[in-house]
């Protein structure tokens, strides 16, 4: 069946949306009572309603008795949510083990992630076929595919991978797209890791395999320091396909990585943060 909306409105009944996340072909929302509704394409169970039928109206996701969602992130044909107990639950396509249950079998109902940390999760990001979470002590663990989780382009099906920041540093915010991740740390600095084809790390390096690109770096799951403006701290981050943007504590906007003229008017990749002609920003998001 169709998974498009006929009039652009979403009927949540008598409930209000408290948070929303859009995947590549589906959407999910946390409602004001902590329940979860999803709608859109459902070919691998990414709506979590126990079926594989596409839906153009929201359907309820059963998280379990007395279990509600406090955070949600929809990825590439899968969805993950943090519950009121601090557990991470995911559902949908289990490509590269992104559901974190130790298998690569799809699930059209929520399964609990075996991240092996013994801690409560406080934030979640679902870039591509990999997922990363911030835990209660500010540490970050990832699972699934690619450099978001591991230095080889394969699955993590046994627990999760710890992302090592500098000694004493912890994460306070995280965001990721199909192939790279970035985090704001507790001192306002930024780290990025994953694929760096277009300089999306923001450290002046790049890893393109195109001979004429001048790039000779390597992709890595080791976080690197982003060279933000001297003395500045990041307060909000957002990642896109091959690029990254951050709002700083002076409310200026800096972006770097792949572009089509929207950053500095050229089509050249920007390897270091570039200050945009934009002021007084407080939050930021990419559009697909």
TrEMBL record:
InterPro entries for the chain: Ran_GTPase-activating, RCC1/BLIP-II, Reg_chr_condens
Membrane-traversing stretches: none
One Gene Ontology term of the molecular function aspect: guanyl-nucleotide exchange factor activity
Classification via Pfam families: RCC1, RCC1_2
Protein species of origin: marine metagenome
GO cellular component terms attached to this protein's record: cytoplasm
Official protein name in the record: RCC1 repeat-containing protein
């Amino acid at each position: 069946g169709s998974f498009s909306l006929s009039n652009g409105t979403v009927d949540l009944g008598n409930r209000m949306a408290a948070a929303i996340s859009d995947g590549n072909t589906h959407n999910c929302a946390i409602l004001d009572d902590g329940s979860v509704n999803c709608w859109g394409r459902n070919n691998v169970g990414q709506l979590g309603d126990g079926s594989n039928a596409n839906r153009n109206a929201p359907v309820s996701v059963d998280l379990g008795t007395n279990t509600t969602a406090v955070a949600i992130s929809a990825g590439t044909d899968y969805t993950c949510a943090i519950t009121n107990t601090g557990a991470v639950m995911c559902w949908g396509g289990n490509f590269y083990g992104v559901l974190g249950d130790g298998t690569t079998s799809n699930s059209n109902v929520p399964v609990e992630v075996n991240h092996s940390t013994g801690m409560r999760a406080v934030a979640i990001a679902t870039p591509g076929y990999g997922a990363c979470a911030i835990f209660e002590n500010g540490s970050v663990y990832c699972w699934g595919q690619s450099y978001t989780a591991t230095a080889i382009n394969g699955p993590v099906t046994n627990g999760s991978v710890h992302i090592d920041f500098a000694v004493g540093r912890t994460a306070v915010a995280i965001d990721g797209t199909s192939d790279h991740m970035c985090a704001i740390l507790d001192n306002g600095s930024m780290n990025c890791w994953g694929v760096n084809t277009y300089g999306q790390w923001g450290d002046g390096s790049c890893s393109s395999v195109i001979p004429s690109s001048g790039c000779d770096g390597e992709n890595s799951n080791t976080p690197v320091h982003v060279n933000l403006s001297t003395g500045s701290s990041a307060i909000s981050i957002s990642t896109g396909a091959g690029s990254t943007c951050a709002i700083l504590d002076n409310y200026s906007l800096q972006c770097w990585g792949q572009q089509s003229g929207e950053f500095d008017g050229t089509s050249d990749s920007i390897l270091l943060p570039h200050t945009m002609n934009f002021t007084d920003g407080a939050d930021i998001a990419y559009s697909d």
